[in-house]
Design brief:
The chain starts with 12 loop residues before the first strand and ends in a 13-residue tail after the last helix. The chain has helices at about 20-45, 55-60, 70-95, 100-125, 125-135, 140-145, 150-185, 205-210, and strands at about 15, 20, 195, 200. By secondary structure, the protein is mostly helical. The longest helix has about 40 residues, at about 150-185.
């Protein structure tokens, strides 16, 4: 029997012991907590702008760290992410495959974005030094990082990004396997086989006898 080449990557378990549904629920809750914390920080920054305001002198440039427009955009993105993560968690828990698709698309977009960053670092390694020069003067370990050999710095950054990409790819496969598991379980027909010796009897689906036409009742009994 021929099988799809992607079938070899399909598995009902993730992280060596968890089921893909459990892993997707844990992942959705984890992203939900992170984005909720980010949303709380953004809301507190909107209510008290002076607490998170950095002047241009502190940043070493002629721009503000976060203005009102950027804060509103970041808040809207956080709210959208909370909605997507909540949908994925609910979909995995209630076995609704369609609810997992937005979270899966976000994972693909995030993986593609990180891949583009790795390609840009590989093609234009000088951009790392330019980025480091634009950092504020009081940025932690700025001088130590700039003193590292540029080639070694590029290798370290590429290795770090590769580890992140491998981890993100594994999480994508877990969510995809959860989607396939739920979708296959919801769409598959239930076939029950009763095996006796070498014979197999296929029982009709449950809905067939229920939806079938009822037999006519027997004629009423008439006494002689």
């Amino acid at each position: 029997m021929l099988s799809s080449p992607w079938a070899r990557f399909y598995s009902n378990s993730c992280c060596l012991c968890c089921h893909v549904r459990t892993g997707t629920i844990i992942l959705g809750v984890w992203y939900l907590i992170i984005n909720s914390v980010v949303l709380l920080i953004l809301l507190s920054a909107l209510t008290d702008p002076d607490q998170y305001h950095l002047t241009s002198a502190e940043l070493g440039g002629e721009f503000e760290f976060m203005d009102d427009a950027n804060m509103c955009i970041a808040t809207a993105i956080s709210l959208l992410m909370i909605l997507i993560c909540a949908m994925a968690t609910y979909g995995a828990y209630k076995q609704h495959a369609a609810w997992i698709i937005p979270f899966f698309c976000y994972q693909i977009f995030d993986f593609a974005l990180n891949t583009l960053v790795a390609i840009s670092v590989l093609v234009y390694p000088s951009t790392i030094q330019d980025y480091l020069r634009q950092l504020p003067t009081n940025f932690p370990y700025k001088e130590e990082i700039m003193s590292v050999n540029p080639t070694c710095l590029v290798v370290i950054i590429l290795l770090f990004i590769s580890i992140i990409l491998a981890f993100k790819g594994y999480l994508i496969s877990c969510v995809w396997n959860c989607y396939r598991y739920i979708n296959g379980r919801n769409n598959s027909d239930v076939l029950v086989y009763i095996t006796t010796n070498d014979t197999a009897v296929l029982l009709p689906p449950y809905d067939d006898p229920v939806n079938g036409t009822a037999k006519d009742p027997p004629p009423p009994y008439v006494s002689a």
